[in-house]
From TrEMBL:
UniProt xrefs under PANTHER family: DTDP-6-DEOXY-D-GLUCOSE-3,5 EPIMERASE (PTHR21047), THYMIDINE DIPHOSPHO-4-KETO-RHAMNOSE 3,5-EPIMERASE (PTHR21047:SF2)
Enzyme type, top EC level: isomerase
Family: Belongs to the dTDP-4-dehydrorhamnose 3,5-epimerase family.
Organism: Massilia jejuensis
Alphabetically ordered keywords of this record: Isomerase
Protein name: dTDP-4-dehydrorhamnose 3,5-epimerase
């Protein structure tokens, strides 16, 4: 099996782990294969953009999403470790307002698939972390929206013992009750 896929507590949010081929020289991994991804997940929406962010210890990025141009995201970590979170913003879903979080790291090679209709964010768990993620729509700044990372109505159990370093837009993000959501 070249790609294992495990649903999270929100079934549409998936954890994927590609197989690592290891030998005396090191290792080789197909980090993304469109044919295997579609066969394993049933999702064949093409990815159109690759992003990379480097974050220092103490940082939380998010929670972010785009309206009208909602992005599906396939997230992985190539340096360090993050607690990656998805929040369901689909009003018609039984899991509306619920969250799932997983530790993604360079070492565990886990990837998280976050469908359109979800907010995404992560907390850095070490000194620094590099995240790479593929998106199913382009960046549309006018469509960007934020959601408060520590909204008690969502209740994300962030495994951090510090007040995070946030971008201004995240420090002043709306609570779920005031956020634009999806049908
Ligand atoms: C998202 C994005 C940003 N930018 C520019 C805009 C800013 O000048 C700079 C930093 O953007 P921002 O502060 O929005 O970066 P993050 O806070 O890491 O935002 C991301 O963080 C969370 C976790 C996500 O899931 C989203 O992909 C994205 O919102 O990059 C671009 O040029 N293209 C892009 O696709």
């Amino acid at each position: 099996m070249r790609l294992t896929v495990t649903p999270t507590a929100i079934p549409e949010v998936l954890i994927l782990v590609p197989h690592a081929f290891e030998d005396a020289r090191g290792s080789f991994v197909e980090t993304f294969n469109a044919r295997d991804f579609a066969a394993a997940t049933g999702i064949d929406t093409p990815f159109v953009q690759d992003n990379e962010s480097l974050s220092l210890g103490g940082v939380v990025r998010g929670l972010h999403y785009q309206i009208r141009h909602a992005q599906g995201k396939l997230v992985r970590v190539t340096e360090g470790s993050v607690f990656d979170v998805a929040v369901d913003l689909r009003r018609s879903a039984p899991t509306f307002g619920r969250w799932v979080g997983e530790v993604l790291s360079a070492e565990n090679r886990r990837q998280m698939w976050i469908p359109p209709g979800f907010a995404h964010g992560f907390a850095v768990l070490g000194e620094r972390a590099q995240c790479l993620y593929k998106t199913t729509d382009y960046w549309h700044p006018a469509c960007e929206r934020t959601l408060r990372w520590n909204d008690p109505a969502i209740g994300i159990d962030w495994p951090i013992a510090f007040a995070p370093h946030l971008a201004d837009k995240d420090a002043h993000a709306p609570l779920l009750g005031a956020a634009e959501t999806f049908a």
